[in-house]
Amino acid sequence: MSSRTYPPGTVQMRPMLDPLARNWWLILLRGALAILFGILTFFWPSLTLFTLIIFYGAFAMLDGVFSLIAAVTGGMPAPRWWLALVGVLGIVVGLMTLAWPGLTGLVLLYFIAGWAIASGIFQIIGAIRIRQEIDDEWFLIAEGVISLLFGILILAYPGAGALGIAFAIGAFAIVHGALLIGFSLKLKKHAEVVI
User: Fold this and answer.
1) What is the mean pLDDT of each successive set of 10 residues along the chain, which is 195 residues long?
2) What is the pTM of this model?
3) Nearest one of 61, 66, 111 to 91, comparing CA atoms
4) Backbone region of residue 160 per phi and psi (left: phi > 0; alpha: psi in -120 to 50; beta: other values)
5) What is the secondary structure of 98-166 as a DSSP string?
């Protein structure tokens, strides 16, 4: 529960937080999927670029699906457009990656960087919007900042070796997943209060 105090008998309205809290498990699934993807990139560093593209496409698409489901479920009166946009971006980039896996590695890196930057911006916007209803929104802000910095890093060094890029993607996915899991567990505590 938030550390903010309310007079006795006050009904605390949390139009953004309550629907997210009810669907905390979707954010937990996003985090677990990201960590699994990150671990796979570290355990198989000799992945071919084609295999990495397929893994990335599947990861981005599933992450997008979970984000979109979290955005549209829960009967929320206030819009969660930022989460829906993260979901749509993930699905589109995932589908494009899977549809054209033969694209050059450089084009793939631009897809990954664009997705990371856009989703990072929307995560930060969402965290700012929800900060009045939840403490420790820093999980969502940190996840957004990590995504944003990762995208900028990829754009700044697109010529890095395939192994270096694979490890960078894996490290990003693990940190991204850990922050999402932390945020989902925070939401779960709020869900227990709501239900």
Assistant:
1) 42 58 80 87 70 78 82 61 81 84 70 83 82 71 87 79 73 87 83 56
2) 0.60
3) 61
4) beta
5) HH-TTS-HHHHHHHHHHHHHHHHHHHHHHHHHHTTT-S-THHHHHHHHHHHHHHHHHHH-TTS-HHHHH
